Amino acid sequence: MTVNLLDFDAAGLSAYFAELGEKPFRARQVLRWMHRSGQSDFDAMTDIARSLREKLKAEAEIVPPAVVSDKLSDDCTRKFLFDVGGGNAVETVFIPEDDRGTLCVSTQAGCALDCAFCSTGKQGFNRNLTAAEIIGQLWQANRALGARPDGERAVSNVVLMGMGEPLANFDNSVTALRLMLDDNAYGLSRRRVTVSTSGLVPVMDRLRDACPVALAVSLHAPDDGLRDELVPINRKYPLRELMAACQRYLEKAPRDFVTFEYVMLDGVNDSDEHARRLLRLTRDVPCKFNLIPFNPFPGSPFRRSPSPRIRRFAEILMNAGIVTTTRKTRGEDIDAACGQLAGQVRDKTRRSGRPVIGIHEVRSQ
Ligand code: SAH
Ligand code: SF4
C-alpha cells in the first residue's frame, strides 16, 4: 500500500526512513521539502539522491486533501472546502487580521458530540480525519495564500476550532500539532497554536503531557443543568471535573490562562445571573472569556443574543477583572462563521454554478 508521507510527524518519518534503510537526516530533508517548501513532487527534491527518490516514488506519496472550493468573503475571510473522500468534505477558514493570520482547521468530518447549537454536531459523525488531512489543510492554505510582502507565511496562528472535536481524534490531531510546532515544518510557537475542546477531561490530561499548546474550552453554561442540555458531553464530565482539568492543564500550558468560549444564546444562557455564576464557577482558574454571538443555521431553535445584552454580559465579567472579548462575526456571507461549518459538498457544488451576492469565487492556485 502506498504510504502518504503527510501522515508522519518528524519521529514517524524517521522511523519510516529507518525501515527503508535511510538515515534520519534524509527524513529531515524530506520533511523540510514537504512542509517548508510545500513540495509534493519527489523529483523536485534536488538534494535527495536519485535512488532514494525512485524508492520513495515507488512506495510513497505526498497527498493533501483536494480543494473543492475556495471562497473569499467581503471581509477577506477565506473559506476552503476540502474533499476527504466518500462524499465527505471539511472546511477550513482563514481569518486575516492586522497583526496575524489565523487558520481554523477541522479535525473530523462531522462530530459525535451533538452540541445543541452546532451545525457540525447536527450533521452527525462521519469519521476522523487522518493526520495528512489535518495538516494538509495548512499545507494547502499556505500554498493558496502565498507569502506576505515581508516574506512571512500568511498563516501565523492555527486553531483546531473547525469541524469536529480534536480531542476525540487525539493521535492524528497530535501528529498534526507536532508538525505545526516543528522547526523543520511550520515552526509555529506553542502559544500560537490552540486546541478547542468541549471538555473531554481525560484527554485534556493526555494533551497536556503529549503536546501542550494553548487551550480553549467551550463552556457555554455556568451550571451542570444547563450545560447538560447544551453540551451533552457534560453529563459524562461535569463542570467540577472540567474546572479541575483546566487547572491541571495550566501546570504545563504555554500560556498562563485558559480561554473559555461562550456562545451567546438569546434568553438561554445570557442573563446577568448567568454571568455572575460564571465568575463563581471559574474563580480558581486563570482565564479569559471569548463571547461568541450565536451564528444561526437552518433548523436551529436558537437566536443570537442582542448586542446590548452581550455588552452587558461582557461588562459583568470585565468588572470582575476577567479579560473578555466578543468575537467579531466574520465570513457570515460565505457560511464560514463559527458553528456554521457543515461541509456539505453536494449543496456547495450545486450552488457554485451561479453567482451569489457577496461571494467572490477564487480559483485555487
Ligand atoms: N469541538 C470543539 C472545536 C470546534 S467548535 C469545541 O466544541 O470546542 C468551535 C467553537 O464554535 C466552539 O466553541 C463551539 O462551541 C462554537 N460553536 C459551535 N456552534 C456555534 C454556533 N452556531 N454559533 C457560534 N459558535 C458556535
Ligand atoms: Fe462537536 Fe464542538 Fe460542534 Fe460540540 S461544538 S458538536 S464538540 S464541533
Commentary on this structure:
The protein has 365 residues and is α/β, with parallel strands linked by helices. It is 34% helix and 19% strand. It contains 12 helices and 15 strands. The protein has helices at 10-19, 24-36, 50-59, 119-122, 131-145, 170-181, 201-210, 224-230, 239-250, 272-281, 307-319, 345-351, and strands at 3-4, 60-61, 66-72, 78-83, 89-96, 101-104, 108-110, 125-128, 157-160, 193-197, 214-218, 258-264, 287-293, 324-326, 360-361. The strands form 3 sheets. Strands 14-13-12-11-10-9-6-5-4-3-15 form an 11-stranded mixed beta sheet, with helices on both faces. The protein has a two-stranded parallel ribbon with strand order 1-2. It has a two-stranded antiparallel sheet with strand order 7-8. Strand 12 (258-264), helix 10 (272-281) and strand 13 form a beta-alpha-beta unit. Helix 5 (131-145) runs parallel beside helix 6 (170-181). The longest helix is centred in the middle third of the chain and has 15 residues, at 131-145. It binds S-adenosyl-L-homocysteine (SAH) and iron/sulfur cluster. The site of iron/sulfur cluster has 11 residues, from helix 4.
